[in-house]
Amino acid sequence: MASKSGVAKATISKIERAETSPTAVILVRQAGAFDLSLAGLLLRAEGHDDASRVVRAAQQAVWRDPASGYLRRQVFARPDHPVEIVQVDMPPGQRVVLPASSYAHIRQAIWVQAGPLSVLEGGEQHLLESGDCLGFGPPSEVTIANDGANTCRYVVVLSRS
Question: What is the value of pTM for the model shown?
Answer without folding.
Answer: 0.73
